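Dig into my protein:

:::
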Amino acid sequence: MPHGAPRSHRAGMTLVELLLAIVIGVLVLAVVGSLFHTVSVSLQAQRARRGGAEAAADALARVARDLECALVPAQDTAAGKLTLSADGTDLSFCTASLAEGEEDGRWWFAERVRYRLAPAGERWSALLRESRALQGPDAFAGAATNVLAEGLRSFRVTVFDGAGWQSEWPREESTPLPLAARIVLGSGAGDAEHSLETEVLIPAAHVFTSRVVRVSP
């Protein structure tokens, strides 16, 4: 090389620059991973709350539908009474239902159903529906149990006897069925509890009289 010629610059990175690039890359990946985890947890929590709310609403509708079709079997009036525990969390009565997916009213069947809460964790409970057919071969089978909703905090029923709302049924000299029922389901995370509530008229407990008056010609 001739004396005084310019020196050529060496291509590439030094060890310090390479280490610095690696550290920056690791920090960026850590930040992105943390953000991704936070967003994923938030989305899962939202889906769980949405799913829990929808399940609670469906469970409330199922209890209401059964109460609207409540009945007292003619062959066993005493056993056909609606029963409600003193704390309002255990409800049992007879009802008429259509088979799943059936729309033909000729295929109604009678069953005795029971709604109750069962522990499903330290703070949560599941609403169970137990059913037993009142006639046919299924009447000799055991009760079928379905989980209607999980992640609930409370389930409470009160019934109306014409004078006021009662937390227990039957009462002294009460009719087999109350006139109406109020159902409350509680759900929610942390200290925020959300309640779903509905009131149901029980048609079988009402006596309808005709107002048609026959007039002689």
